[in-house]
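Q: Give me the 3D complex with BES.
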Amino acid sequence: MKVVTKTGSPESFATEGFVAGVFADEEPDSSVLKMDKEMGGHLLAAIENEKFRGEPGQLLLINTLGVVPAGRVALVGLGEKDKADEESFRRAMAVGALSMRKAGATRITTSLPTAFGDKDSYELLAQAVTEGAILATYRFERLKSEKSKTGINTLTLLAPDNKSRKELTKGVLRGTAVSEATTFARDLINLPGNYATPTILGAEAKKIAKQYGAKCTVFGPAEIAKKKMGGLMAVAQGSKEPARFIILEWMKGPKNQQPVVLVGKGLTFDTGGISIKPSANMEEMKSDMSGGAAVMGVMKAVAELKMKINLVCLVPSTENMPGSAAVKPGDVAIGLSGVSMEIINTDAEGRLILSDALAYAGNYKPDCVVDVATLTGACMIALGRHASGLFSNDDVLADQLSESGLETGELLWPLPLLPEHDEDIASLVADIKNVGPRWGGASTAAAFLQKHVKGKWAHLDIAGTAFSDKNKHYTRRGGVGVGVRSLVRFLEKRMGV
Ligand code: BES
Ligand code: MN
Ligand code: ZN
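A: Here is the predicted complex, encoded as structure tokens.
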């Protein structure tokens, strides 16, 4: 979908569909009132007759029968005015765009950002509306013989004048960049394990680098062994798919600016290994590379927006398989950090491969390191599907991340990381073991990661949020692409761009 801006007034603008918003129990805004006037009062009458109150998610679709240049009007509820934020607009636009697609429209229009924002918020609201439309109408059809023939090609954001149009255009560019980076991540997540192998993730990273002039280095099994990435090697030895360690570098910031390093778990399929998982829903474990897909998406968005920052993304990537050479419970691996790790449960593999990436991050003398991983079922039990777990050794960093999460609708919820969790992973034979007691599994996983970290660090556990079992707001069933938008927002905050 292309999103563009134009100047014009909704009641005189030709379009297949016009999407307008209404706050709960408030008078409709002037764009709706003007449209209503042109329609001889039928719009307000429909609102009245259908008991349309403007509740969040509420929809009223009206065919104008050609009385105005717009073929249809979709009124979408924005909820209560005092509670409205960027997320309300994202969700409302999702409802509007999906209803228009269902009605068969290919070119639609809205004035949502300018109808409700003041000049200062035009840009942010235009971004939110762009995101809502692109993300909601996403479809994954790569492996279908028959692809959908129709869909929305163009969304036009209407501005009353050229000055506001400029603001809208800025938001549209940002919104398009982060949404396309998110759908890029979704595609990789939805792509099954036999397609999205570590080799393919490496190739996708190279493509991003080539397209935007970033630097990409991909280590194969020989270099991984030479570098002594013992955690990644231990997990990879059970699979015949060769492992990859992917490095993407975007050093377009000031020379003296320390880079932010993002680390993403790139486990392309998690069977559990010898500690094999139950078969029910195991197919969803193709999504165990969602963290890797997210950080690659962040790199794509940052490059697309030509952000003047220094950013490094690291993705350790392998399958976790119970092959004949697979790592066994009780085996000990020595990671790049030099820490020896007893592998009690081969299904706690994410922390093993991340340990090497976290240690490798130290080479960049980073400002901070943030890792993103579908790490523990325990985090999913604790927070459900609505928020990711947030662990950090630095309060400022944690606050910047939570704020970014709140603003982008990708909630990050702080969870504890205590000295006691270190005791929980003490091993009899090695420095640490890869599982703790049954309780507090998300925290002991974080404690394990922390052993390989120097400096400011945060860990996002996206086990519950990376993959969706239903269509909700602008999220589709399958890969969510969570992390892309919140981390781009975080980089803007942290690096002042
Ligand atoms: N990839 C899983 C975590 C996961 C579970 C992600 C459900 C998404 C949905 C991870 O590798 C794993 O298996 N973790 C184990 C750790 C345990 C053995 C300590 C878990 O959470 O069960
Ligand atoms: Mn696992
Ligand atoms: Zn896993």
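A quick observation: Residues 188 and 200 are 9 Å apart (CA to CA).
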